[in-house]
Specification:
The chain is α+β, with helices and mostly antiparallel strands. The chain is built from 24 helices and 19 strands.
């Protein structure tokens, strides 16, 4: 039976106990991003630091999870070690369906365990187990041991951290089922601060599907739209790495710490090259028929007599940009090897790669030396980057510990802020121009997915401030609705508001379906209010000089337009949050 309330498990690591809270609000916050912000407001302490034991770590799913395809994401919400403010990170894998089959809309974890622990939860059980023997182990070894410790079938999801999360590295993520992640803004460090090595969600219950013909018919229609369109060929065949060649041709690909935006050398690390040379197989998040996860291989020689170990590594556009084009590493197998080590350490590959790109340029300029970096850093030198990823994940010295708190933190100490490629956090793989740079720098998650600013830059030729800001605000609202349903954003052209309303009605959420515009606006405001409550001041966000110096196929960045756009978008953000003036 469809319920119009939320069923939320609250786990206290101090007492080792949990309780299910029944909360109203489905028709105002929907689920996913909306539910996460709602729970953060209910259980967080905005005036306390991110690593205060009482701060919550939240995982939330949406009303359509388990009922329609590609409703496969889970929203993780927390107070970020990166900026000590409200943050979200979105991950896939089996986590969303596992929560649904565990009969939960959300999981909230508070407190700090006395020993390194694992939370094991299902529909009828909660266990907090001492796993001190896993502390210090990497993500992959931890995953192997978890699968042996906690038995389960296809609806079991394993979330775990590596050494980076244990050591409080602000760019540490949470690995989900090996090939997916809650990557950005440091949720892995939040788990580490709670002595929480892992979370196992065992979907050991069942839930009934609507038996109406309307539901069955609509499901088939949605499935057909998702699998019979260009979406399959784009995301299943080459996948998002197809953007490498396209952006390079448009002079919009960050290269060599954004010293340029196009380079013929990247022809060796395009999506096509990865597919031809490294691809082993495709995989998919639970509940997704598309299969966009591309898994390649690397091999490592372990004996002189040509004996090798093979490892499987997932890849997409963002990791390839971060440790490929940004580091000028032009060999696809070398790129996968660097990604593999970053994953092993439990680092966000995007932030780690961009951070090392800054460190390399700082080395070239004489600001850093091997005294700090331990190993030589030079653009294109993949062996050095593999070692550096280990040092970064382990926090091996003062320099790497500082770099792990964010590139700007290191640049403030050593110098070189002008060429730190940071837009609120380390940049994403789109050097498209003023609108995208503004969007990521000032977006709620500092993510390239907060809005489609990268697409706006490519399609719009004029400099219309009102039009650009209006686009960013409205596009964010549309994406917030999708992330509150926990739809994969790859499906955004299929899941229109009209289709979402139909889907909701067929499973019994008629009131929510009839008010999607109001609900999405409410969620958008709630999220911004959550960020501001933690001390966010958009005026404090600085954009390094490097972003004013680039040139794309459209021409050079216009500093005057860029600055005006930032000012106008700051006003829009404050209006959304209901705080129209800076304090």
């Amino acid at each position: 039976m469809i319920r119009d309330f939320f069923r939320v498990l609250i786990v206290d690591l101090v007492t080792g106990r949990g309780a299910v809270a029944i909360l109203e609000g489905r028709d105002t916050v929907a689920g996913g991003s909306g539910l996460a912000a709602f729970l953060f407001n209910k259980y967080s302490h905005p005036d306390r630091p991110w690593n205060d034991p009482d701060q919550p770590l939240i995982f939330a799913i949406g009303p359509l999870t388990g009922y329609f395809p590609l409703m496969s994401k889970t929203v993780c919400a927390f107070k970020s070690p990166y900026h000590d403010q409200y943050a979200e990170s979105h991950g896939g894998g089996r986590s969303a369906l596992s929560l649904r089959f565990a009969d939960l809309d959300a999981l909230v974890i508070t407190g700090k365990a006395t020993k390194p622990s694992c939370v094991n939860v299902g529909s009828r059980h909660l266990e907090i187990r001492d796993v001190s023997y896993l502390w210090g182990k990497d993500v992959f070894e931890t995953g192997k041991m978890l699968r042996g410790l906690f038995k389960g079938a296809g609806h079991r999801s394993n979330l775990r951290i590596g050494p980076a999360g244990e050591k409080g590295i602000a760019i540490a993520g949470i690995n989900v089922d090996t090939y997916r992640h809650f990557g950005r803004l440091g949720c892995g460090a939040v788990m580490g601060s709670k002595n929480l090595k892992a979370i196992v969600i065992n979907g050991d219950a069942v839930f009934p599907l609507p038996d109406s013909k309307d539901y069955s018919k609509l499901f088939q229609e949605v499935y057909a739209k998702l699998t019979d369109t260009d979406m399959m060929s784009k995301y299943h065949d080459i996948g998002t790495p197809i953007n490498m060649a396209l952006l390079n041709e448009l002079k919009m690909l960050p290269i060599r710490n954004l010293q340029r935006t196009s380079d013929p050398v990247i022809s060796n690390i395009t999506g096509e090259q990865f597919a031809e040379n490294t691809l082993l197989r495709n995989s998919a998040c639970a509940g997704c028929p598309v299969g966009c996860i591309h898994i390649g291989f690397v091999r490592e020689r372990f004996q002189k007599e040509h004996r090798y170990l093979y490892r499987q590594v997932s890849y997409d556009h963002e990791p390839i940009f971060a440790v490929g084009s940004m580091l000028s590493v032009d060999n696809s197998f070398a790129v996968l090897a660097i990604i593999d080590i970053a994953e092993k350490m439990g680092l966000d590959v995007m932030s780690a790669g961009v951070a090392l790109a800054w460190a390399t340029e700082a080395t070239e300029k004489g600001i850093l030396s091997e005294k700090e970096t331990i190993v030589p850093l030079s653009f294109g030198y993949s062996e050095g980057y593999k070692k550096a990823m280990e040092f970064l994940g382990e926090g091996s010295n003062e320099f790497y510990r500082l770099l792990g708190q964010g590139t700007l933190k290191a640049a403030e100490h050593f110098g070189g802020k002008d060429y730190a490629c940071v837009l609120g956090q380390e940049m994403a793989g789109y050097a498209t121009g003023e609108v995208f740079f503004t969007s990521q720098a000032l977006g709620l998650r500092h993510s390239h997915l907060d809005s489609g600013g990268y697409a706006y830059d490519q399609k719009e030729k004029g400099q219309d401030l009102t039009k650009a800001v209006d686009f960013l605000v409205k596009d964010e609202q549309g994406r917030v609705l999708l992330t509150s349903m926990v739809a994969c954003l790859f499906a955004r052209n299929v899941y229109t508001d009209e289709l979402l309303a139909k889907c909701l009605k067929t499973i019994g959420f008629g009131t929510l379906a009839d008010n999607l515009g109001t609900v999405s606006r409410n969620i958008q405001q709630l999220r911004w209010q959550s960020r501001f409550a933690c001390g966010f001041r958009p005026e404090d966000i600085t954009i390094p000089r490097r972003f004013y110096e680039i040139e794309t196929l459209k021409g050079p960045v216009d500093p005057a337009f860029f600055d005006l756009l930032i000012q106008e978008y700051v006003k829009a953000i404050r209006q959304l949050a209901g705080t129209d003036k800076a304090e």
